[in-house]
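Hi F.,

I've been meaning to write this up properly since the lab meeting, where we talked about keeping a consistent format for the predictions we share between groups. The idea is simple: the sequence comes first, exactly as it goes in, then the structure tokens exactly as they come out, then a line or two of notes. No screenshots and no reformatting. I'm using this chain as the first example so we have something concrete to point to.
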Amino acid sequence: MRRVFPKPVPLSKAERKRLRKLEARYKAVFDKYPDGEVPDDDAAKLQRIEAAVEALNRQAYAERDIALAGAFVTLGHDGAVRIERGFVRAEDEPKSKGKAKAKDETAKAKAKDADGLAPLSEKLVAELTAYRTSALRNELAKHPVTAFLALVHALALDTFFKGSTCTCLEIAPKMAWLSGHAPGMDESEAEKETAERHAAWGKRMPQEPEALWPFIHGLPESERMALLAHCVSLTANALQVRGHKPDALAHAGVLAREVALDMTAYWQPSAAGYFNRVSKDRIAEAVREGVSEQAARNIAA
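Output, unedited:
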């Protein structure tokens, strides 16, 4: 499903004035300690100012999003209630403005045809637009900056505006869902961080897919790269399951080396997650490989 996110609530004139005062007070206290060693009294004061600033920076869902989207209420891995908001079912999606506009233009074209001008044949239109597509491809290849923008736009469009057709690039990201393969996966450190990053970008996205191009065009280069990295990262699939191509798994290994992936930062073996599900010999083999022969002999009994 597509997901919508809350947006910052515009501040009133009085709130903006209060925010400036709070920021000035925070800076005045913080700048007294350039070495970072802040006494407890002033540290508590900074925390109070931060809380006041956070209270001003409110976020809320747009009224149309509240009417359109729904929420999932589940139990987390630790038994706590977990609420995920802002999901829009495909059948509840409003009709695209782009499609409505296209229909209007088609209707206008038919009206002109009715006025006496013979319409261009479909074959001629296809031929003319084939030449245009060829020229566009060639020029795009000569403008790597624009090609990069178009790539980010196409990936972000499919990631945050599922089903939108506001791109001429036939590039579509695919995402393998991991939750079905590992219970509790959604509450792992990597998934939490990914969800937070996705939500942070989602809150910055424009309301309409048609506004995505100027939004991406206006981003600083570093942020544009970060958005691209996020969208690309969601397509990575290193699942070792039946039917998955060995070459893809080999490439996952290449990427893991490139990013210096350290799995100990994300996963630790436990009785439920590993030891109860493998043989004693397999455990000894893992200890032998990861620690030493002596360590494996020590646990053999």
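Notes:
The first helix runs from residue 13 to 30.
The two ends are 51 Å apart (CA to CA).

If this format works for you, I'll send the rest the same way.

G.
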